[in-house]
Amino acid sequence: MASPWPATFVPPRGAEPAHLGGVRLTDLAAEWGTPAFVLDLAHLTARVGQWAEAARVHFAPERGLAGADVYYASKAFTCIAMVELARDHGLCLDTASGGELAIGLAGGMPAERIALHGNNKSAGEIRSALAHGVGRIVIDSLDEVDLVGRIAAELDVVAPAFLRVTTGIHAGANELISTGHEDQKFGLSIASGAALAAARAVVDHPSLDLLGLHSHIGSQVLDDAAHRLAAEALLRFRAEVARETGVLVPEVDLGGGFGISYTGEDPLTPDEIMAALSESVRTTCVDLATAVPRISVEPGRHIIGPAMISLYTVGTIKPATLPDGERWYVSVDGGMSDNIRPVLYDAAYRAALVSRESTAEHRRSRLVGKHCESGDILVKDLGLPADLRAGDLVAMAATGAYGRSMASNYNLLLRPPVLAVVDGGVTEWVRRETIADVLALDPRAG
Ligand code: LLP
Q1: What atom in ligand 1 is closest to the CA of residue 405?
Q2: Considering only CA atoms, which of 403, 201, 213, 198 is closest in space to residue 300?
Q3: Is 0.90 topped by the overall pTM?
Q4: Integer Cα distance of 317 and 327 in angstroms
Q5: Pairing of strands 308-322, 325-332
Q6: Angle in degrees, CA 425, 415, 38, rounded to 5
Q7: Are residues 74 and 100 in contact, defined by beta-carbon separation less than 8 angstroms?
Q8: What pLDDT, in 10s, does the model give residues 262-297?
C-alpha cells in the first residue's frame, strides 16, 4: 500500500499540526488562507528527475534503443514555474490548446520541445504552433491533415506531423478517461484503415513531414500490460506504414496515463515503467526487423498528482440520519469547483485532519463542499474524528493532477492558489483568484 501523501508530509502530533515541506500547515493557512493547493516541491523535483533519468537509462543506445523523451502533460497542471522546472530537467511539454502552448512558451520551453495535441485544434492554434516552430503537431483526423497542411503551406513551412492512432486497447480507471478503444473521439483507427489512409495523405502532402505515430490509451492505468500492448500495436502499424508508403517514421509516442496512489494503490515507478516499455519496444522491433524509433511518453498525473495536497478549513458539521445510523456531513470552504474529479469520475481520495492530532473515535462522515449542489462531494465515505470542529484544517491527498487545472468558478467561488513549499519556505506558483478578477470579466462592472 503506497501512501498517497507527499514525501515531506508529516502528520500532526498532539497539538503540533501537520507539516509539508517543513512548513506548519496552520501557519500556511493563517498567512495564505484556504482553500489552497499546497505543492511539495522537493517531492515534485525528485519525481521529475526520476522520469528524466529513467528515460535516459532505459532507452540508451547501449541497450539497443534510440533514446526517449518525456513530455510533461501540461493539462494535469501548468504554470510558468512548472514549465521552468520541466525545462530545467530536460523534459519536453505536451500541450493541448493555445493556452497551454502560451504558458509553455512563457515558461521558456524551447518550441522544438513542445507538442501540440487536440482533436479539434483551431486554425489559430495551429498557426501559432507552426509560427513558433513547435517540434510536433499531433494530427487527429483526416480533416486535420488538410487543415495543418494548408496552414503550413500558407506559412511556407513544413509541419512536423505525428498521427494519433487508436490501437483498440481499452484502458483507464473510468470510461470518461479511456481513449484507446474504437468508440471515442480521439485518433484515427488502425482497425478501420483510417490511420493508414491518413498516413498516406500526410506522406503525400508537400507541406507535411510524417515524423511519428502517437497513442494514448487512457488514464490512471496502474500496471504496464496495456501500455506494452499499445506499444506493440503501434510498432506493428509503423512497420505497415513503412511497407505501404516507404516511410519508416523515426519516432513513436506512447502517451501518458500512468497511475498513482490516491487511496493506497501501488503504482509503478518511472524506472519500472520505462524498463517495461523499453523491453517491449526492443523485442517488438527485433520481431519486426525494423530499426528502433526514438520513443516519447507523456506522463501528467504521475508527475504532479502525488506532489500536491488540497488544504481546506472545516465549517459546518451536521448529521444525516440513515437506516443504519448517522452520517456526518463535514463542509469545507471549497468543493467541486476546485476538485471536480470525485463527482465526474467517482474518484476516491484520502482526507485527514491536519491542524492537530485527535484521539477521538472516528465516525462515519462525508466531506462536502460549499456549492449549491447536493452532488458537491469531495470524499463520499470516510472516518473523521468525532471532535472535529469549525476552524479545523482538513487536507486531501494526491490532488495535484487535474485539480487546479479543472477548477471552475462555479457559484463564483474564487479558484485557489498553488503554494509551493520547500525547506520551510512558501512560494506562490499560482495566486488566488480575487473578486476583482471575476469582475474584470464583466464589461458592465463599475
Ligand atoms: N497525453 C495525452 C495525449 C493525453 O490525452 C493525456 C491525458 C495525457 C498524455 C496525460 O495523461 P495522464 O498521464 O495525466 O493520465 N481529467 C482526467 C484525465 C484526462 C486525461 C486526458 N488526457 C482526470 O482527472 O483523471
Answers
A1: 16
A2: 403
A3: yes
A4: 10
A5: antiparallel
A6: 25
A7: yes
A8: 999 999 999 999 999 999 999 999 999 999 999 999
Enzyme catalytic residues:
372
Assess whether the C-beta atom of 306 lies below 6 angstroms from ligand 1: no
Q: 298, 167, 164, 302: which is closest to 229 by C-alpha? A: 167
Q: What is the DSSP string of 278-306?
A: HHHHHHHHHHHT-PPPEEEE--SHHHHGG
Beta bridge partners of 168: none
Which residue bears the cell 493563517? 30
Report residue 393 as a C-alpha cell. 484544517
pLDDT tens digit sequence for 315-337: 999 999 999 999 999 999 999 99
Give the per-residue pLDDT at 173. 66
Which residue in the block uniquely carries the three cell numbers 513551412?
Answer: 157
Characterise 337 by phi-psi region: left (phi > 0), alpha (psi -120 to 50), beta (else): alpha
pLDDT at 185 over 90: no
Alpha carbon of residue 75 to chain centroid: 5
74 CA distance to ligand 1 centroid (A)?
9
Grouping H, G, I as helix, E, B as strand and the rest as coil, residue 380 is strand
- Report residue 345 as a C-alpha cell: 469520475
Query: How far does the centroid of ligand 1 lie from the alpha carbon of residue 429, in Å?
Result: 22
* Average pLDDT for 367-373: 97
Residues 33-46: pLDDT tens digits? 999 999 999 999 99
